[in-house]
């Protein structure tokens, strides 16, 4: 039996009085890829941000590796080292060069030995073919390069779960492929557990083991990845898939 | 030669005394800036926290120092500290105290403004790699704020240097006070000395403030390398 990494129970989220997430339940196992799909405003980004505490959920429980999280700032800080996140805006720190961007987490948060962390960072950069850029600053890089480095920066902490929040949404079309290939390789070669919010339906179809379809803050359906794209259960999901096609 | 008063500039040790006054001006400004910038950075960071009472107190502190003229602050500290609190500081230390608190107040606002204009997703990606609040300030927000702060900081430093001219009012022997003494001592014999002495003082201030803006330019270029 594969280990459960993350489980969410009855998660509700309010902005003031307006409820944006309703009784969300789901879990994800070691090595699984879960795609959060749904129209804009359906709450997928809010949900994925709740999973590492960037948004605080109003009620509900989060279990990581079977342990219930007591949502204090300190506990979130500890948990964030095990849950890597990459965002839509390629937000490397502009005041640090590529290597220091990657090393900040391992050396300052996890207090790892600098030389050892550096070796690891360089071998990660090798995987994405950007070893020549260790001393470069973010502004000297293309969007695609920045996004690939942001992925490496998250991986450098050895997370057990990776969250991808629309990571290709602001990239030039020709940059998208390179980033998606890395995510795919992470799943296939490293068996990384991942939760992905994306608008790239072809990509989601290829990579998702399971799809959680959200609409208006509700999980409308939870379907096997292959099934969802050929035979979605709900009318709303079928309409959504239709609207994403040209 | 004589009627322009050049000889009073070099008579006796007048020129050395003026240089000494300039040094007083510089070290008071410099020390106030060092203390004020450090304190202001801390206060600016605190002002971005969510704690409301703390923010109100710090805001009042800022407004107090911004609204009250520096002369009044100097007099308040110079006359009230010894009388009410029995704290007898020499005038130059009073000057550093008042200026440092003033710089801290103004700089806290500059730091706060710069910190909140660092984009929100920088904060979030810092948190996402597990940084705590202090590490987030130290490695992500403050370095980025620094670049944004630079022009306003140089402006503040220039104002501090210029405002030291008020220190003669609490009898600090700064460059203006000494210049004034030289002018008054020679007023009978060299009525035009005032032009020369103030000309020299103008030149001194220009050198100090201009090197500040050169420094700013250099730091700015170094940042962009």
From TrEMBL, chain A:
GO molecular function: ABC-type amino acid transporter activity; ATP binding; ATP hydrolysis activity
InterPro entries the record matches: AAA+_ATPase (IPR003593), ABC_ATPase_HisP-typ (IPR030679), ABC_transporter-like_ATP-bd (IPR003439), ABC_transporter-like_CS (IPR017871), MetN_ABC_transporter-like (IPR050086), P-loop_NTPase (IPR027417)
Segment forming the signal sequence: none
ABC transporter domain ranges (all copies): 6-241
Superkingdom in the source lineage: Bacteria
Keyword terms, alphabetized: ATP-binding, Nucleotide-binding, Transport
Entry similarity comment: Belongs to the ABC transporter superfamily.
Name this protein carries in UniProt: ABC transporter ATP-binding protein
Taxonomic placement: Bacteria, Bacillati, Bacillota, Bacilli, Lactobacillales
TrEMBL record, chain B:
ABC transmembrane type-1 domain boundaries: 22-216
GO cellular component, one term: ATP-binding cassette (ABC) transporter complex
TM region(s), chain numbering: 20-46, 58-81, 93-115, 166-183, 195-216
Keywords annotated in UniProt: Cell membrane, Membrane, Transmembrane, Transmembrane helix, Transport
Membrane topology value: Multi-pass membrane protein
GO terms of molecular function: transmembrane transporter activity
Regions annotated as coiled coil: none
Main location (coarse class): membrane
Subcellular location: Cell membrane
GO BP terms: amino acid transport
Highest taxon listed in the record's lineage: Bacteria
Classification via Gene3D superfamilies: MetI-like
InterPro entries to which the protein is assigned, alphabetical: AA_ABC_transptr_permease_3TM, ArtM/GltK/GlnP/TcyL/YhdX-like, MetI-like, MetI-like_sf
PANTHER family noted in UniProt: ABC TRANSPORTER MEMBRANE-SPANNING PERMEASE-GLUTAMINE TRANSPORT, MEMBRANE COMPONENT OF AMINO ACID ABC TRANSPORTER
Family: Belongs to the binding-protein-dependent transport system permease family.
Protein name: Polar amino acid ABC transporter inner membrane subunit
């Amino acid at each position: 039996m594969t280990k459960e990494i993350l489980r969410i129970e009855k998660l509700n989220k309010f902005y003031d009085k307006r409820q944006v997430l309703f009784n969300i339940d789901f879990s994800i196992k070691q090595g699984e890829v879960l795609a959060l799909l749904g129209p804009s405003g359906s709450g997928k980004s809010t949900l994925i941000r709740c999973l590492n505490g960037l948004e605080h959920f109003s009620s509900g429980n989060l279990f990581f590796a079977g342990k219930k999280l007591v949502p204090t700032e300190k506990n979130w800080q500890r948990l964030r080292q095990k849950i890597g996140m990459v965002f839509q805006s390629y937000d490397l720190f502009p005041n640090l060069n590529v290597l220091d961007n990657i090393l900040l987490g391992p050396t300052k948060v996890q207090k790892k030995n600098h030389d050892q962390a550096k070796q690891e960072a360089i071998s990660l950069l090798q995987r994405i073919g950007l070893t020549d850029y260790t001393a470069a600053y973010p502004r000297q890089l293309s969007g695609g390069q920045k996004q690939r480095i942001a992925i490496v920066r998250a991986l450098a902490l050895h997370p057990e779960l990776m969250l991808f929040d629309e990571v290709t949404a602001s990239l030039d079309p020709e940059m998208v492929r390179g980033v998606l290939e890395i995510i795919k390789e992470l799943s296939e070669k490293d068996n990384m557990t991942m939760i992905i919010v994306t608008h790239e339906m072809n990509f989601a179809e290829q990579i998702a083991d399971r799809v959680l379809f959200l609409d208006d803050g509700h999980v409308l359906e939870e379907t096997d990845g292959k099934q969802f794209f050929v035979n979605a259960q709900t009318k709303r999901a079928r309409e959504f898939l239709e609207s994403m096609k040209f | 030669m004589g009627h322009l008063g050049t000889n009073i500039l070099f008579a006796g040790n007048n020129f050395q005394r003026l240089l000494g006054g300039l040094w007083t001006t510089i070290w008071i400004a410099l020390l106030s800036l060092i203390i004020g910038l450090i304190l202001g950075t801390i206060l600016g960071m605190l002002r971005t926290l969510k704690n409301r009472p703390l923010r109100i107190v710090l805001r009042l502190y800022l407004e107090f120092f911004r609204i009250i003229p520096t002369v009044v602050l100097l007099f308040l500290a110079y006359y009230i500290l010894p009388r009410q609190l029995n704290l007898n500081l020499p005038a130059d230390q009073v000057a550093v105290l008042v200026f440092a608190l003033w710089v801290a107040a103004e700089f806290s606002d500059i730091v706060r403004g710069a910190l909140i204009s660092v984009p929100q997703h920088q904060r979030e990606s810092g948190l996402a790699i597990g940084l705590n609040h202090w590490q987030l300030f130290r490695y992500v927000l403050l370095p980025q704020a620094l670049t944004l702060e630079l022009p306003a900081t140089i402006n503040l430093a220039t104002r501090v240097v210029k405002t030291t001219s008020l220190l003669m009012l609490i009898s600090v022997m700064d460059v203006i006070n000494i210049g004034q003494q030289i002018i008054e001592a020679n007023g009978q014999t060299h009525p035009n000395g005032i032009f020369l002495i103030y000309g020299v003082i103008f030149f001194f201030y220009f050198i100090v403030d201009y090197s500040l803006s050169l420094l700013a330019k250099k730091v700015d270029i170094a940042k962009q390398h």
